[in-house]
Write a structure and sequence with these properties.
single chain; membrane; Transmembrane protein
Length: about 60
């Protein structure tokens, strides 16, 4: 009984990892979103550093 549940959970886990074109977001869309998030985070980080350096120079 426990063995059958383990097998079932393993197969459902494997099935959920595969890409389903009608249900899942396309990998290209995810890659584009990831690049956007990284770009925004870098912009915020550089802006923060620029403000800190400007305050150090002026203060």
């Amino acid at each position: 009984m426990v063995e059958a549940q383990k097998r079932l959970s393993h197969t459902t886990l494997k099935r959920r990892q595969r890409f389903h074109p009608k249900r899942d977001v396309r990998p290209a869309v995810l890659a584009k979103a990831n690049r956007l998030v990284i770009w925004v985070a870098a912009f915020i980080g550089l802006s923060f550093l620029a403000i800190v350096m400007l305050q150090a120079v002026l203060g």
